[in-house]
Input
Amino acid sequence: MDFHYRAIGTLLSPFREKFGIPRQSLMMNEARGTIKLNPDPQYALALKNLEQFTHIWVLFDFHKNGRGPWHPLIDTPRIEAGERMGVFATRSPHRPNAIGMSAVRLERVELGAEGGIEIHINGVDIMDGTPVLDIKPYLPFADRIEDANSGWAHTDIRRYEVVFLSEVLATLKKFEDRHPRLLALIEEMLAFDPRPTSQRRAAPIYESSSEGLKFAFRILDLDIHWMVRDKSLMVFDVKDLAASKS
Output
């Protein structure tokens, strides 16, 4: 049986590409986003009392995954897993139905926002431009299961020290008006080592063989260039993509 759903809106987030997106929601305090609802005269009523909740569930479509064959076994973001996992035992986007679900913090609802209703959230792990299918309140008494275990994902995610060259700090300061708390967001992203599993497994940050390796990712309208230095992650350059297009 086939089912067809219409998106209720679009999620706007800092993450313009898959590289660097948090591996779970609520991992970062600076990962802010906005759900821009589509025009519908009923949506204002549908949001009544939502702001009484601190957190919500966002159901969305993995629209950048394509609609090709799905993968029953996948490599997880956790390199310590040691083996490929069944997709139903993971939160991978490569599923029979490309539906995602994230719990996020609800900051505020703006019914009178320019261009339509906006729902401002934090702790997002969702790519910019993602179609949103539904919103539901997070209920601690029902959604938090006290005796639940973590299955195979039983270890904490390692964090690394992040440092910035002085000239990079000066450059980022120029973008504060355009992107408030940008420095904190970049630091949070890098602290978890945002590289794909294959790269993190082949070249761990803590091994001397990784010294000097260089990488980059896109956040908002910036390219962030960083390298491995003394078992930490050092940001050595920032490129303003908005300026290059003007």
